[in-house]
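Researcher: Sequence of Chaperone protein HtpG follows. Predict its structure.
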Amino acid sequence: MTTGKINVSVENIFPLIKKFLYSDHEIFLRELVSNATDATLKLKHLTSIGEAKTEYGSPRIEIKIDKDAKKLHIIDQGIGMTADEVEKYINQVAFSGAEEFLDKYKDSAKDTGIIGHFGLGFYSAFMVADKVEIITKSYKDEPAAHWTCDGSPEFTLEPSDKTDRGTEIILHIADDSLEFLEESKIRELLNKYNKFMPIPIKFGTRQNALPKPEDAPEDYKTEYETVDHIVNNPNPAWTKQPSELAAEDYQSFYRELYPMQFEEPLFHIHLNVDHPFNLTGILYFPRLGADLQIQKDKIQLYQNQVFVTDNVEGIVPEFLTMLKGVIDSPDIPLNVSRSYLQADGNVKKISNYITRKVADKLKSLFTENREDFEAKWNDIKIVLEYGMLSEPKFYEKAGAFVLYPTVDGQYFTLEELKEKLKDNQTDKDGKLVVLYAGNKDAQHAYIDAAKAKGYEVLLLDSPIVSHLIQKLESDNSDLTFVRVDSDHVDNLIKKDENAVSKLSDEQQTSLKTVVEDIVPKTTYTVQLEALDSNAAPFLITQPEFMRRMKEMSQSGGGGMFGMGNFPDMYNLVVNTNSELATNILNTEDKTHQEHLVKQALDLAKLSQNLLKGEELTAFVKRSFELIK
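Model: Prediction complete. Tokens:
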């Protein structure tokens, strides 16, 4: 038997590991299962190149709990270690066996999927165990070894009578970590971190129903056999080529990833690149609810099929963090605990690749089946609009597939829209005016008036639309967006015609004074307009610029500083050619004059859905009095 001290530069390495290196104790199982996987994949590689004179067979990893003895076993049938290798790899902390292996076989081992290259993964065992044993036999024809350490730098190393190839790690679980002797807890951790590991993982057994015999009697009772319970899927969909998978395979994998999600995804994007970095994965577009924050952190990041995190910001462009799915890359740099990204040029390249791939897929979906793409537009538009605002590379490609729907359910790309509108909606200065509504019901009267003139009205109702149209205007100098309720329909698209008022300048001044004395100055700016005599006498509009800046300020990331808290300001447009304008001007009874103005104002507010509460009650009461 050999005894000695572990070769570490810090005497109290174990308390350090327990306290600082791994903040989340549960990852010990991920690290140890990863090590077992590495050992198995190493054996697979060495047998494939003829260097290991042994049968690879069908190895698996087994996890066993011995609750009475407070022990947890992790057993593999991998490459194993000789006593010298235990001395080298286990006793010299941070000297990684996997790293040395990769270096030695760097040309032939390129795609073996070896995970461990930190060297400290094994020592995470001491976060939950007060004693750890390793019983291991190498694939080489050498005696087995038995290593024991109680969490101090002292260890013992002696021969073992183990005869089968591979390694068994025995954790003597500490009293403050007894939860890791519960079957439910271990099952939870295996499901979280090791659900898609490339080597089958056995944890207990389960009962399998045997097929019913053809000659079974009527009172036949189903018979069961006890089989190993394999808790992982070693060949998940993202490890296969797209040509190997049908639509149903992608749907099945989605259900495997999100067993509690009952709504099917809209479509998927299969990522598969091996140069200049290695990355595979499948992203799904889900139907997005109103609360976008709840949707985030649904993409899972793996490294060689080992779960790392579901916080993928930095790797996945932010606008795509609302999607679901899996990304797997051995080229994403992680720190020693495999849990956080480190700053690295590869990460930005990966992010750019994902952006480009998603844009290309969206374009192909649009081109191949435009009708289906239009049907899904409302469910995906917020992601795409956010992408246009936040990712220049996505914005460059988005013109080919981003849609602008009309209130009548037609869909146009921006170029199609320009062609459609140029004859009827170009103003006197040669600028194309795109009219839009944010709410079909609330702005119904304004939409109707615009359509009566033959204008197209878009329905742009996403929460970030003000930011988007601001960007589109800045990149298209010949284009302006105007909300349909921002002015009278005759003023939305300025033509050369000059309307003539029935009232003289003096009468208009008097009318304006009367109206301004009655309506609240803090809310309304009174404007006199010579409109068609059949047009509404009073019309409330909200100036496009001020409203848009306020919306941008409220939704963040734009607009004028502090405008989100400004009170709403409106224009009250009084039609000087209306019969009501003349009646208000000619009425000598001040009370009746006030009633007319208030009634007209309330009707205008009602058409804008602005009349509420006490004002609505007063309006109803006044209306009944007027029709007595």
